[in-house]
Structure formats: structure tokens, C-alpha cells
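Hi W.,

Here's what went into the run:
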Amino acid sequence: MTDVPHLGRPRRVPAFLETFWASIVVFSRHRVSFTALIFLILVALVSILAPVIAPHDPYVDVGWRNSPPGEDGLILGADGDGRDVLSRLIWGGRISLLMGVVPTLAAMLASLLIGVVAAYSGRWADQVIMRVLDMFFAFPIVLMATVVAGILKPGLATVCIAIFIALIPYISRLVRTTTLTVKNEPYVEAARSAGGRGWEILSRYIVPNVIAPVIVYTTTLMGFMIVLGSALGFLGFGVQPPAADWGTMVEEGRVVLRKAPHVSMFPGIAIVSVALAFGFIGDGLRDALDPRMRGR
Amino acid sequence: MVRFTIGRILLVVPVLLGVSIIVFMLVQLAPGDVTSTLLGPMASENAKEVLRAEMGLDRPLPVQYGKWLAAVLQGDFGTSWVHKRPVSEIIFPKFVNTALLAGSAALIAYVLGFSSGVFTAAKAGTLFDRIVTALMLILGSIPLYWGGLVLVFLFALTWRWLPATGMTKTIGGGGALDVLTHLVLPAVAASLPSAALISRITRATMIETLSQNYIRVARAKGIRRAIILRKHALRNALPPIVTVGGMELGYLLGGIVLIEVVFAWPGLGFVVYNAIIGRDLPTVQGAVLILALAFVLINLTVDVVNAYLDPATRAAEGGVDR
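Here's what came out:
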């Protein structure tokens, strides 16, 4: 075994990996956020493995109608049609998580493009984009999403489109403001004076510094969008029966609220806990992605 | 100050124009042919053509928009396809009901959020603070419609203290007390998420303000805590709280659709929902336009009030880009 001389830190690890690792370390120190992340991963796993894990077929009646939790061997009871609430909850998680995560991520990508273009291309395009966004800000987000989803044909895609459209103004505005700040940082000026080309400066110096606050905001939004998506499901604009997301399940339970409150209570609790978890993760990410918080 | 107010009002005009374009375009998203919705699936192509020409649907979109906008500006929102009555007759009476619900909800949200925020900030770090803060965090994540259902289950179905749905009793109702008892549950349900957010902002701002040097000076001078809290801290913590409070009033207006559906409250949100279900597009257009208009005017008022309260905003005259 030859002795390798130790010459300081090996430079094999790319810089971004180091940053990434530092973020993970900070995040894992955040006990609440870390627990929330574990919880969300578990929920996601259970949803993905629904066909294996769910004890019953979510669409077939397996117990007495409205039978309370614990009876008939159904842990969370049966709904108004005698279907297993637990199995429907597990299957519904797939749709609810999807509705919260996918359109929000898509809106984030679209907004990155819109916001960076607005901030980077200067006055004319910026003015046009901002004025158009102002018009969308004239609608409360829930109203916007409700009307878009309600007018289109009901379905999962519709809810996703509605959330996507309703979110873009909010994320774009954040991207634009952050880009404007980053654009005037000394290191961007240095890169420019060193002869960096426009595209290079954008991809290497601006976007990486803009993305951190955007990711934090998007994570927090995901929790809110799961709530909003479930609301659209509750109104009947989402997936159609017999399939159900958590919001649709709450609506189904509404009919039997007096006899079987558990039918709408459990999906509601699921929505609240997942939304809370996203919020906590957002808090943790904010600290982890902010370099000033490191080494504390 | 006057200049700021006028400038801000002038800014609203193009936004409102944009709002009308969006509302007009939203309805164009509707799948299927309008005429077959109106005449039924069995209608002949000929009859559809006639109706299309009659409604001006054969004209280009900009022309249709122009005609629609001109009519709207004169208070004519078209005729409801379902009720065969002018849309304005349907939506204007409902607007009062929505305003009543949204106003009461906002009042509850402000009182609850503001007081809990100030108290938790004054007692920051104590068990009381932790419990209330955690409670507010959970309240903030509760879906509006589900919170409404929980309230209905507890107060209307289990304990039978309050009515579950509607605005008045079907028989012999209509008095102020009757409306008030029907108002409590939906107003509380609609207020909870906003109360949670206002509480959080108030707490954070108050804690920050309380750590300022001038508060320490006041304390060193021996001024009583309650007076410091009320006269020194609250005053300076107010602007961000007012901003958030105003934004929340707008958010409430959006959430009111859900609350009105849960409680069958006869307001604009319930109208929008029923019109969507019944494919009554002119009514959707009219009601959404009114809601958006209210939202824009609320934001305008908040901006102006804020400028009066906060000299820093006033200095940034115009306030175009925030």
C-alpha cells in the first residue's frame, strides 16, 4: 500500500456537489422538516404501491354501508357505498399528490422561463409580460382555478391545467424580482467584464442563484396546491367516479356526514397533514439553500 | 399623497380592461358548441346556424368581445341561458349576500388573527405561545370546504346549535337574527385560514418590532409593558399586517366560492358554481367579472390605506413595480 501524499482538499468533487451536500447536511439538522420529509416519502411510497398495499379493491363494496372504523375488519371503516375507506384513501393519495406536485413543478419551469426572460430582456418585453401578469393577479387564485377547471371538461388533466395556469403569475413574479436582483450582483458584472457571453452568464451565474428561492416557494406552494386541487375535486371538477382523490372523498362523505362522519374526516386529515408537511419542508429548504444559514 | 392615490386609480383602468379580456376568453375555453348546448343535441344544423348568427357568434372574436364589453359597460351582462332572465338581475342581489359573508369572515379573521398574533408575540417562547402558534399552523393548512364540514358536523348535526345550510329558515325566516344564526358557521369557516395567516404575520412582525432599540429604550425608561406594546410596538408593526390583511380579504373572496357551496349560501360564489354546473356561460362571465372587480377594488383600497399608514410606500410614488 503506497502512502498517498495529502495535498489539501482533492478537487475531484465538482463545486455544485459540495454545495448540494452542504444543503443536505443543513436540512437534516432541521428536525421538523426532516420528519416531514420522511413522512411525505412514506405517503408517496404507500400511494405508489397502492395496488400492493391497499387491503381491498377501492371500487367494490366490502363491508356494511357507513360501517364505523374498526368494524368489519376495516381499519378506517366503510363509506356510503360500503367501500373500504382506507383503500380509497391509499388510491386517492396517488391522484392528490399528483395534482399537487406535477402542475406546480410545470408552473415552476414555465415561470422560470417567463420571469428570467422578462427580467433579462429589458424594458419592452418586461413591460408586456408584467402587464399581462397584472391582469391575472386581478383574480383570486382559488376563483381562477375554479373557473378554468369548471369550464373545461372535468378530469385529472383539467385540474392540473387549472392549477398550472393559476400559479404561473405568482411564481413568475418571484423569478423576475430575484433575477433583477441577481443581475446587478458584482459577480455577474465580473463575469461580463471577463468576456462571458449572454447565454453563459445566464446559465452559469444567474439561473443557479435564482433557483434557490424559487424552489423554496414552489415547495410551499405544493402543499397549498394539494389543498386547492382537492377543493376542485370536492366541487366535482376532478377525476370522475368511481375514482376519487381526497377532495372527492370528502364530498362523498358529505352526504353521509351525520351517520358516518369518518368518511369525510379521514381524507380531510390526510390533506391537512400532507399540506403541513410540504410547509415544513419548505421552511427547512429555505434555511438549507440559503448559504448564510450554513455552518450554524 | 393625492398624486399617489390618483396614479394608483389610473393604473387600475388597464388592469380592468385586461380582466374583461380574460373573463371573455375563459368562456371560450368551454368545450363543445354553444348552440348545441342551447338547442339540445337534436337541433338541425340550420337552426344552429340561425341562432349562431342571431347571437353574433359567426363574427370574429375581437368583434364579439367589443360588443360584449360595450354592453357590460352599460350594465347589460346578457341573458342567462338557464333562467332566461338578464344576468344582472341574477347576480346583483347575490352580491350583497357575498359581501355580507366575506365582510363578516374578514372581521372574524382580523380580530382572531390580530389578537392571537399580538398575544403570542408578547408571550413569545411560552407554552401558551407554542400551543397557539401550532394551532394556527394547522388551521392554515385546513381546506376551507373541509373546515366547513367539520363545523357543520359539530355545531349543526351533533350539538344542533346552529343551522347547517342556507341564509334564512325556509318557513317564517328572514329576520336579522335568523340571518345572523345562519351566518355564523360559514363566516367562521371562511375566516380560519386567513386568521391563521394574519396571526402568523402579526406575531412575526411584532416580535421583530419588540426587539428594536427604541423599544429597549422605552423599557429602560420604565414605561409599562402594556403601553409599550400598544403605543410603541403596535403602531410600527401595523403596515405589513395591513398589507397581508388586505390581500387576505381578496383571498377570502376566492375561497368564498367553496364556502358558499358547502353552506348553500346564496351568494355570487354559489351562482358561479351553479352556472358552471348548468353550463350557463353568460352568468359565469358576469359573476366572475363582478368578483374580479371587487378583488381589484379591494387591492386598490389596501394600497392607498397602506400608503397613508407607511411613509416608505408613500415615498415610492406610483408604486408600479412592487
